[in-house]
Amino acid sequence: MNSSIFKDYDIRGVYGRDFDDRFAFDLGNKVGQHFSADSSPDKNVVIVGKDGRPSSNAIGERVIEGLLKSGAHVVSLGECSTPLFYFVVKKFGASGGIMVTASHNQSEYNGFKIVGRESKLISGGELKELFEFYPLQMLEGGDYEERDFTTEYADAVIKVADFDNADKRLNGDIIYKASPGVGRILRALESKANFNFKEAAATIDQEDSLKIKYDDDGDRLAFENADSSAIFCIVADAVLPKKIVFGMTASRAARKYARSKGFEVIMAKVGHSNIHHMMQGCGADLGIEASGHIYFKSFNFLEAPELALLIVLKQIIDSGRRLEDLAAQYPVFPRAEKTIDSSQIHEKIIQRIGEKFSDGEADFTDGLTVEYPDWWFNVRASNTEPVLRLTVEAETKKLLDDKFSELTAVLG
Hints:
Layout: E1 11-14, H1 21-36, E2 45-50, H2 56-69, E3 73-79, H3 82-92, E4 96-100, E5 109-115, H4 124-133, E6 143-146, H5 150-161, E7 174-177, H6 180-192, E8 197-199, E9 210-214, E10 221-223, H7 228-239, E11 243-247, H8 252-260, E12 264-268, H9 272-282, E13 286-288, E14 294-296, E15 302-303, H10 305-319, H11 323-327, E16 335-340, H12 346-356, E17 361-363, E18 368-372, E19 375-381, E20 388-394, H13 397-411
Parallel strand pairs: 2-3, 2-4, 3-6, 7-8, 7-9, 11-12, 11-13
Antiparallel strand pairs: 1-5, 4-5, 9-10, 13-14, 14-15, 16-20, 17-18, 18-19, 19-20
């Protein structure tokens, strides 16, 4: 086991190289013991879900075996989205849960998102400590069941969205690219509202369709018909939050718009646990990351992409406008991103960039952010991969091209 797999807010690495099936068993066993310490022996319920990666089946089976040997009552969701997993942990009143996923990482990666009661995320540092603290335990008292909460999740989303679409219909299909777990959620929504979801395929006429795309574990949603910054603004206008937490790389256009509407803007480090904890701490109604994660106070300060989807669909139907036209009323700034795989020490690279652009307004909340009147950039170490990520945004395409070239030249 490679100790570097314990990241800021999950466990993640290359399956077969950084961790193996034995680690998955041991992790399940030790996490099960950790949960049982806060539960009565007959009420240590642990929820287990998995994404659709090729390795998730084998890893999930070993996690479950380890949990059972700790004496846990395991409720398996099978392949599901991470937001549904969070929802079930809270709804079921479970001791906690383990989601087998590596989110957006490439297929050779896999990992674990682990939460306690109320779907409170357990950090990688905490997981490393408990993994080293607990010895293996081989009990015979564990039991197992399989459950499907897709309908309950869809009902909850519709209720929170206050969505009543009985007499209205969206023109055209909604074409989606997503895992089978997300597909089941969309079909449940389809059966309860007047929509027509179709999985992306070459045989489907997509000319006038609304197109959406999820990541592998279903906690990020993108609309191909509109810029993400505009989507954030549409959601904010519907939610009317008093406070919004933005990840440090979120669009300045969205932040400026939020301030213009009187919403309080609070900045946080990029990453699920950082946004989640900041929202809880300040009571924010909405959380937004540039990567497409949208968090809602009404969903336990967690991602709820289907809630964001219903909010946008409701705005389209009520306005009678196409998404492209609805999005056009919001400011969008040109933006460029780059991943830098460098053998140099990341702190030294960031220091060199800071010295080069010392005339701007610097912020070290998450890597280095430097703000100028008409452009800004952020360079930070990834939480999930051994790389640097560069984000640049400017008010014009020419300025963006010039500054992006200047920065990438310094980064090498």
